[in-house]
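Our preliminary data section would be incomplete without showing what the modeling component actually yields. Below, a chain of 218 amino acids is followed by its predicted structure, encoded as tokens that our downstream tools consume directly.
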Amino acid sequence: MRRAVSARASINDMALIVIGGHSRNVGKTSVVAGLISALPEFQWTAMKITQYGHGVCSKNGDPCHCANDDHSWAISEEKDRSGESDTSRFLVAGAAHVWWVRTEQGRLAEAMPRIRDLLADSSNAILESNSILKFLRPDIYLTVLDPANADFKKSAQEFMDQADAVILHASNGAQAWQGVSLKPVAGLPIFRIRPPDYLTPEVIEFVRNKLGEVSVRS
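Predicted structure:
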């Protein structure tokens, strides 16, 4: 059974997709960029949420010793179309607006009022994050899993039971994860990928159909 999460604020008429994953470098950014490109009619606002550890500045991601109250979070709009950064890739893929949210670990709540304002001004939104699920209820949550990558974020485990489908890296059967149960996603649609292809026609069709259901409900 899915746990209740905070209701969406003033964004009931828009489609909201969240792409998460259990670690860095599993293809979350590629999935977001691919969906933006494959579904241009939704005029996406894209957002990447990054939480830094202690001693790292939320303004630029560099090590710093600034007072936490001054730098607990920062949000900037991406304008660069070089495709060299994750957020730039979203812009190149066709997003109408792209935002990069940086917060100290565990302080995402402080940025939520501004995040909600940005989303309320959007047609439809797609976010790269796990932790945002503490505050927003998306129409679709996809989690990207790579059995060959041993790291498994606590946030990915915490919200796995909210996934609508799994994007799973193909493997030789070995699983590097230790102490991780996949029972929360048992029975969900599983879409297998082989990088560098992180998106399949089946994933796109699944998302399109789910968004169609959202449109009917609204």
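Residues 201-217 form the longest helix (17 residues). The helical segments are 28-38, 86-93, 112-120, 154-158, 201-217. Preliminary results of this kind motivate Aim 1 of the renewal.
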